[in-house]
């Protein structure tokens, strides 16, 4: 996330919002109340929607023969509080990258204010921030995957081979048969690898060794 966040409060006027968006080359920003509490998000789309509505009012006034007095002052009275989308869709600082991506996709938003347990703003994460995670080197991802396997599921990491190409993690090898609990740990490890930064996909080619039967003791006469 980005911790240096450009913000406005609810009384910030239209022109100032417009200026900040252009100056900082961003498409939206959180609207704060009471210092750091997130009240909503105001974006370019919100500003354009307001412009379109006022233009429609002007056309209606023209067709009815009424004078549109706000023609020379099209943004008067518009503030972040009236323009913003609320409530804001937010996320916690400990959320995973996939969780943030799912939240953005579900709500069709381009940015997520990051808030603490008290709802105070601590940062913001954008689609660009999420995509940058997938630029992690494959070697770094492979190292993290090996660590997860070693710590959660596999006492001997040498029995499992981890290869990563373009963010796709492939697990190959033979896992020794053991208790059901160990099987659950392997599944947990795979889920944790999925949540590792930079992972695009996980291909599980692990197989379980077939236990050999111990020879039965010979019968005595």
Overview in brief:
The protein has 221 residues and is α/β, with parallel strands linked by helices.
Largest sheet: 3 strands, mixed
What's the count of strands?
A: 8
Average the pLDDT over all residues and give the rounded result. 82
Helix content: 25-40%
How would you characterize the overall build of this protein?
The chain is α/β, with parallel strands linked by helices. It has 7 helices and 8 strands. It has helices spanning 14-24, 44-63, 80-83, 97-107, 127-133, 138-152, 180-194; strands at 8-9, 28-33, 37-43, 111-115, 121-126, 160-165, 168-175, 201-208. Helix 7 links the parallel strand 7 (168-175) and strand 8. The longest helix has 20 residues, at 44-63.
List the helices and strands and how they pair.
Blueprint: E1 8-9, H1 14-24, E2 28-33, E3 37-43, H2 44-63, H3 80-83, H4 97-107, E4 111-115, E5 121-126, H5 127-133, H6 138-152, E6 160-165, E7 168-175, H7 180-194, E8 201-208
Parallel strand pairs: 1-2, 7-8
Antiparallel strand pairs: 2-3, 4-5, 6-7
List keywords for this structure.
alpha/beta, three-stranded mixed beta sheet, 7 helices, elongated, 8 strands, 221 residues
């Amino acid at each position: 996330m980005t911790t240096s966040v450009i913000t406005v409060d609810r009384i910030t006027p239209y022109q100032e919002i417009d200026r900040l968006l252009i100056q900082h080359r961003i498409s939206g920003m959180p609207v704060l109340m009471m210092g750091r509490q997130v009240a909503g998000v105001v974006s370019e789309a919100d500003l354009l929607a307001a412009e379109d509505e006022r233009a429609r009012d002007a056309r209606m006034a023209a067709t009815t023969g009424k004078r549109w007095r706000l023609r020379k002052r099209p943004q008067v009275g518009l503030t972040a509080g009236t323009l913003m989308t609320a409530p804001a869709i937010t996320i916690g600082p400990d959320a995973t990258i996939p969780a943030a991506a799912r939240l953005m996709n579900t709500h069709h938003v381009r940015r997520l204010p990051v808030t603490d347990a008290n709802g105070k703003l601590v940062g913001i994460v954008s689609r660009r921030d999420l995509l940058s995670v997938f630029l992690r080197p494959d070697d770094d991802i492979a190292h993290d995957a090996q660590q997860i396997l070693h710590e959660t599921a596999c006492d001997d990491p040498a029995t499992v081979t981890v290869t990563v190409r373009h963010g796709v993690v492939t697990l190959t090898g033979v896992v020794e048969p053991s208790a059901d609990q160990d099987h659950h740990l392997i599944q947990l490890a795979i889920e944790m690898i999925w949540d590792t930064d930079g992972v695009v996909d996980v291909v599980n080619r692990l197989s379980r060794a077939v236990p050999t039967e111990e020879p039965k003791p010979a019968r005595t006469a």
